[in-house]
Specification:
Length: 65
């Protein structure tokens, strides 16, 4: 039986304007990131694509801002 995939994300239409979003880190986020980076050495590289997507204005339907 073939596997079916559902599109659960929000795709931007070419005619929709994309806004540049400024991402600011809270002190709690910085503190937690610093603590986690001691155990998980590549965590900064792992979260960078998420931050880049937020800055580009791409938001998944599961993401609440």
């Amino acid at each position: 039986m073939p596997v079916q995939y559902l599109n659960c994300g929000k795709a931007l239409m070419p005619s929709e304007p994309t806004e540049q979003v400024k991402v600011e880190y809270t002190p709690e986020f910085k503190r937690n990131l610093r603590a986690l980076s001691k155990k998980y050495r590549h965590i900064r590289l792992d979260i960078q694509p998420v931050i880049d997507r937020l800055m580009a204005g791409v938001v998944n339907s599961n993401t609440q801002l």
